[in-house]
Each structure stands twice: as structure tokens, then as C-alpha cells.
Amino acid sequence: MKLKILVILFGVLVTKSVLASSHEAHISKIQTTDIGNPYNTVWLNKDITDSPCSSTNEHNRYTLSTNVQHSTALAALMANKKITVAGTGTCKNNIEIVSNIQLKAQ
User: Fold this and answer.
1) Distance of CA 52 to the CA centre of its chain
2) Which residue has better confidence, 16 or 106?
3) How far apart are CA 31 and CA 41, in angstroms?
4) What share of residues in the chain are helix, strand, coil (percent, to 5)?
5) DSSP for 59-92?
């Protein structure tokens, strides 16, 4: 029974990580609203087609969920630096929520 539960949990984790998208691109636009609002978003200048969320795929955008993510995205936009955005695989109003943002010196 315990092995069966472990196999199911592993399957859920693998499926969730496969469904999440990740992209390296420049930011084309940021929209600010209240943190936690699904329209607190960042748009990438790259076509997104592998997100489980239709609005992310249609509009090339992700929902920012923390002040740190928002600050990092703003710094990248102002410096015209590429970021790597990883999604959670979770949709809020059909927009994928950001898991993390990486900004590297180039």
C-alpha cells in the first residue's frame, strides 16, 4: 500500500513538472496590480506554446506572484536583460503563475 502511494505521488510530481513551462527571453511589457492578482503580469517577447494555460500561450505572459519576482522583472526590463521564467504549471484565470525568475549577468 505504501509503495502504491509513493508511485502515485511520484507520478503527480513528474506530471506537474512536465506541464510547467520555462522560457528565456526579454520582457516586452509588465503590468502591475495588487500582488496575488492574476493580472499582475509579465509579457515575454517570445512565443509561448507549451504552457498548460491558454491565455499564457495566446498572449505570451505569466502571472507574477511575489514582490521579489516583480522587482526582478522590472530590473530586467530596465536593463534590457534576458530572463529565464519558470512556470508552476498552475493556471489562474488561464495565465500560468511564475515559479521563479532568473536574471544573469550577460
Assistant:
1) 11
2) 106
3) 5
4) 35, 35, 30
5) HTEEE--SHHHHHHHHHHHHHT--EEEEEEEEEE
